[in-house]
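Design a sequence for this backbone.
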């Protein structure tokens, strides 16, 4: 067991040194901001409900697709776990800040204690929303990376068409799982959603988020091409190849 933990830790550290920091930073930043922006609704209909976190969620899935394409599904999941862990840490910090004395700048503009309390509640977050979003993100990461790898092994084409095919299918599946798990944990139990609303809102939300991925996937493919030309993460790729043997 100790040997296994040491090997996983060694793998994690080498992976973090191998994946370009900009992609990891964007991934973590998007997950943190998604959690914060989820407090404001973007579109709200009976069978289509999107919060403002939707505007950034596609970036985290595109980062996962890029990492999965170059390093494989397991590294993509590991980076996702890191992002969820960082989000939990930030949420703890935000909670402590919301409990601290003093007023937000908006209080001095409005003179309203209700505004100050509302900002504290928004920044502090709610435990069940944090729990639901964390579990949903982990389930979505496994689904997205697994589907991406599965589709890649089942197609013979290469180039952008192959990247787009594996990315679109995995993103749609991953986003649906993300929305469905979150809605099941949070919306059904705390907001009284029906299962019909859970299914259709998860599906329509996944389609909307997929459209964003379609628009920006050429940029993701160019990043993958550049990584291959520059042999990014060559040490880690050789390491996992040796481990498999």
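Sequence:
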């Amino acid at each position: 067991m100790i040997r296994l933990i040491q090997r996983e830790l060694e793998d994690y550290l080498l992976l973090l040194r191998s994946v370009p920091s900009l992609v990891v930073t964007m991934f973590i930043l998007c997950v943190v901001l998604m959690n914060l922006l989820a407090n404001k609704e973007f579109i709200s209909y009976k069978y289509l409900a999107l919060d403002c976190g939707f505007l950034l969620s596609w970036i985290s899935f595109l980062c996962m697709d890029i990492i999965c394409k170059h390093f494989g599904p397991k590294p993509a999941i590991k980076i996702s776990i890191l992002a969820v862990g960082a989000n939990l840490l930030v949420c703890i910090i935000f909670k402590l800040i919301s409990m601290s004395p003093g007023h937000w700048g908006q209080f001095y503009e409005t003179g309203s204690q209700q505004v100050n309390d509302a900002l504290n509640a928004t920044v502090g977050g709610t435990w069940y929303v944090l729990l639901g979003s964390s579990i949903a993100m982990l389930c979505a990461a496994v689904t997205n990376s697994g589907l991406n790898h599965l589709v890649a092994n089942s197609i013979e084409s290469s180039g952008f068409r192959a990247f787009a095919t594996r990315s679109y299918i995995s993103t749609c599946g991953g986003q649906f799982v993300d929305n469905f798990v979150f809605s099941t944990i949070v919306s059904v139990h705390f907001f009284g959603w029906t299962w019909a609303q859970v299914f259709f809102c998860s599906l329509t939300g996944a389609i909307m988020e997929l459209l964003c991925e379609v628009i920006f996937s050429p940029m993701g493919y160019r990043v993958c091409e550049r990584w291959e030309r520059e042999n990014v993460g060559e040490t880690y790729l050789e390491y996992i190849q040796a481990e498999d043997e």
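The chain has a mean pLDDT of 89.
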